[in-house]
Amino acid sequence: MIPVSLRRRWRVAVVASALATGGVGTLVARQLSPAAGVRWLAGTAIPLVFLAWFLRRTLAENRPPDDAPESGVHSTLGLANGITVGRGWLYACLGGFVLVVPPAGTPWRWLPAVAYSVGIGLDWVDGATARTVSRRTRLGERLDLAFDTMGFLLAPVVGVVWGALPVWYLSVSAARYLFKLGCWLRERRGLPVDDLPESRVRRPLAALQMLTIAVALVPLVPASVAWPLATAAMIPTLVVFARDYLSVTGRRNEANAKERTPVTRVDE
Question: What value does the CA radius of gyration of the chain take, rounded to a whole number of Å?
Answer without folding.
Answer: 22
